[in-house]
Structures are given as C-alpha cells and as structure tokens.
Amino acid sequence: MKEDDDAPDYMDQEHINREIVPYSNKTWERIFHLRFQKKRSLATLVHNYRLLKSPENASVYIARKMKEMQSSSKKLSKSDLLALDRSTWKVILKMDENYETIHDYIISEVALREAKKMGKVFKASRKWVLNFKKKYNLKSRHIDAFVTNKKVESREDLKKTINAFREKIWPTLRKKYPEKKIWNADQTGLKLESVGLRTITVKGKKKIYRKIQRSSAVTHSVTLHIAISAAGKLFKKAYLVLHEKKLPRKFEKIRNNFEYLRITNTNSGMMNSVKSIDWMKNTFLPSIPKNSALLLDSWTGFDQMEKLPDIKKKALQIQILPAGTTAELQPLDVYFNRQLKSFNKRMNEKIKIYHSKYTISKRENLLSLINLMMSQFAAPMFQPMIQLAWFKAGYTKTHPPPFITPATFCFSIPEDNLNVYHKNEQSYGCSNGTDSELTKNHKMPRHLNRPSRGQL
C-alpha cells in the first residue's frame, strides 16, 4: 500500500477555509433557510448538497459563506455613495448654519454615522474628505467671533429686524432725501504701525520672527471717525483721535497742515461722548447741507450728541441702526473700513522696505500718512468703491461699475502706467518707486506724497 493511502480522509482546516464551493447565492440562501429556519442537521444538508462533502466541512463552508454574503450586502454602490454624500452635506450645512465648529474629522464622523444609518460599511478616508470638501466648496476659515447659544437662538429675530430696516425704513429715507444727502458715520481703529500676521519664509522653520519699528506701536492705536454718502462721496474731514493725554504746544503750528484731518486726543485714543459732540457740532454739521440724514450705530456715546440744538437747526434726521445689525447694515463696516485698513497696511509695508529709517508711529509721520490715505480715498475715481459699500449693505439695487481699489491703484500698478504730475512739483503720488529723498512737506517719503486729486 502506498503511503498516501494511510493519510486521514478529512481535509486540513486551512484547505477547507480556502476551498470555494460553487453554489449560487440563491442556493446558499436555501441552505441557510434549511439549516437555521427548518433546523435541518448538517448530515441532511450534506446528503442533499453533495459539494458540502462532510458535516465538518459543511459547518465551515456555511459560516464562511454567511459572513461573506453579509459583508457584501453592506458594501456601498454608486447610488449609495451619492446618497451618503447628500445626507452628510445636509448635516454639515446645518452645523454651519447653527455656528458649530467643523473640522475634517467632524466630516468623517458625520459620514460614518450616516453610513451606519444606511446599514452600510464605509471608511471615510482622507482622500474622500478632501473630495467632499472640494465638491461642496468647503474651506477652512478664520473665526471672526464667538457667539453664545442665546445669540444663536435670537439670530432669526435679528434677520427679521435687518430685513425690516431694509424694506421699510430705508425706502422712507430714500424717498425723503437724495443719495448725496444720506450719510453713514462710524469709527474705526488704526494701529500706530500696521503689521500683518502672515509672511512667506522657508518651509520647515519651527518659529517665525519678523521686525517691527516700535513694540508699543503694534499695541496702541488711533481712532478715525469717518462719514460717507450714499452717492459715493467721502466726507472731507476725518475726525482723528490720537492716543495721547495732552498734545504739545508746538503741535498747533502744524495742525492745519493736514487738510483731510481734524485732530484731537484722548488718554485711550478712542472716541467718547464728548468727542462725538465735538465731531457733530464742529466738523460734520458745518459742512453738510440742510435736510440731510445720518445713519449711526447704536453706540451709547451718541446719546448726548443726538440732543444737540444744532441738529434741529440743520434739520438733520439721525437714524439709529438696530442693535446687533452693524455688521450687515452699516456701509462703513460692511466694506469701506476694510479697504482703508488694507491701504494703510500696504503703505506701512512699503515704507519699511524702501525707507527703513522712517518711523511710521512718530506723531507727525503718522498724521502725514493718514492724511495722504484720506486724500487718496477722496478721489472721484473711487466713488464706485464707496457706492459698493451701500450696495453690499443692501440699500441699493444697482451694482456700481467696476473699479480699482486705492491699495491696488497706488501699490500694484507699475510706475510707467501712472500719470506724471506737475513737473514743477517734487511729489510723485502713489507708485512703486523707491526714491529715498524726503519731501519738505511733513518729511514724507517723496514717492508717497499725495498727487492732485484731479489727476486721479
């Protein structure tokens, strides 16, 4: 007898696990029914289904095939993936609308939860998450502010208030006053030295350091109180509050040199009720025509100012914006102030590159630069930019014509494309020049001294 004849007649476990029994899924379902519903023995099943070979083999085959079919039924088809995408997007969109914080791993967890609801097995890979974000135009953004649940719950009421102002109060103002007589005033802060929090450097550095001129200049600021009209005009005089307890006597000699600024000071460098009265009485009212309107936010500093007799004499209607709506209803906040700060930052950066010894935060230098900035923004060519602020706030229906922002015009256009100003003047206006000579007027870098507005 050969040696193979002495081998056991059963098959080893590894071979049984690998062996494929060629029954259709329908046949296997019948076997499962007989085994688990009808309670047939393994011997009976082997007798009826010869490919199962033996009770021992049949036990392994049945368990393996049942697990395989259950796993197969949980795999996602193309239609399942589309349904999973849509259900995950609905959850993420609702979270975004409810001001919930969302990260990549949150998207993964939501997708896994939705797949489980569908009774499917799904792995939310990094690639899937990236494709999901691209499909639904999702981006990581800086959080501007945090709100409590109470504020979130009142958001719907706030939307109704905003819509009511746009649909009822604004049309009333517009019927009563022409656009050139409707103004919006607001205050915004400017750092003594404007710096960005991002820079370009070599990849892989652990810590990034950058130079500033003065440490106090990036923590202290001045306040600009500005007014713009719905017709696209910038109020000529910006009310500037310096961060100084007392101005020196010699300052009076140069105060009038700053054509576009009315300068004052407080200990904090911020506006207060006294300064708001001063602005209204001595800056704003003398320069506007009778029967005008002014939109203001609900700042308590304006309470005393509204009671001034001069306001009635001038027939100025003051319309206070509803509390909490400033970010959406105030044109200056919606668009204009952002352009102002962008210009100031670009101007500061350019000076530090080409004129490193020019101290920006020094009082006279700072005022010269802000005066220059306001002169640029007052140019007629930037009228559509101011009109866009009113459009974005929801007051006007017609989009202003295309325009170039002051920062782009002054700091991005090659010098060869700019107009040449009066040849007998030593100033060149905003350009990309690097002339290091300082003008006699306020000791400003020569290529940053203001051009004639008529040339813009």
Automatic annotation (TrEMBL):
Region (Disordered): 431-456
Listed name of the protein: HTH CENPB-type domain-containing protein
Highest taxon of source: Eukaryota
GO cellular component terms given for this protein: nucleus
InterPro entries, sorted: CenT-Element_Derived, DDE_SF_endonuclease_dom, HTH_CenpB_DNA-bd_dom
Pfam families: DDE_1, HTH_Tnp_Tc5
Keyword tRNA processing: no
Annotated source species: Caenorhabditis nigoni
Keyword Hydrolase: no
UniProt keyword list: DNA-binding
Biased composition (Basic residues): 441-450
GO MF, any single term: DNA binding
HTH CENPB-type domain: residues covered: 72-142
